[in-house]
Design brief:
The protein is α/β, with parallel strands linked by helices. It is built from seven helices and six strands; from the N terminus they run E-H-E-E-H-E-H-H-E-H-E-H-H. A hairpin with a 2-residue loop joins strand 2 and strand 3. Bound molecules: guanosine-5'-diphosphate and magnesium ion (MG). It holds the Pfam family Ras.
Length: 206
Amino acid sequence: MQEMITISIIGAKEVGKSALSTQFCYSRIIEEYDPTIESYRKQIEIDNEILIVEILDYDYFFTDSDEIQNLKKENYRKSQGFIVVYSIIDRNSFDELQNYLNEIYLIKNCDDFPIVIIGNKNDVENLRQVKKEEGEEFAFKNGCSFYEASSGRRNNVDESFLTLLREIRKYPFDSKSNSKSNSKSNSNSNSKLNSKSNSNPNCLIF
Ligand SMILES: Nc1nc2c(ncn2[C@@H]2O[C@H](COP(=O)(O)OP(=O)(O)O)[C@@H](O)[C@H]2O)c(=O)[nH]1
Ligand SMILES: [Mg+2]
């Protein structure tokens, strides 16, 4: 059986999550998204191995209902890596990044999970609100990989996804929980998580 890797793509509204996912999976932008499609699958060859990638692209912000929050928890649990997206032309979407990372750290009980941050829409330079260096610095501080990309121009789309897939393949997973193996027994493993979640009132605790 082929190996399947499940990843989640998350971030604020309208930053281009669905555009990035469809560009990666189908090599095209789909102008009118079918809102009922919330996951995509693609078979890829990476480092001479064939695997199936499942991308979970849910919009969790429609409602705070228990049902949606439970779905979100379930999806985060089964994800082996995350693409966290902001738009370089939307400062608010950049400001929300830490909340998204904190959610991942909490549910995975560690702060070094495979995560790639994408600053999307870098084809619209004249409307830029977030400098590239700000994205780089944020990603570096959080130990994440970083790309600026354009799903519209298909710039750095494959690179971002392939970097995440390679990180996932190197990562020491506990096969049952899809979290880091032994992360619970390592008392230092979530020290960053504790300091961040304590200082961040917007952080969701599952
Ligand atoms: N200029 C530009 N527009 C983009 C890019 N990616 C997405 N968009 C547009 O941004 C809007 C939101 O994209 P969408 O993928 O639906 O965002 P989502 O809510 O994060 O899934 C759509 O109108 C897209 O056409 C990009 O790289 N460049
Ligand atoms: Mg979408």
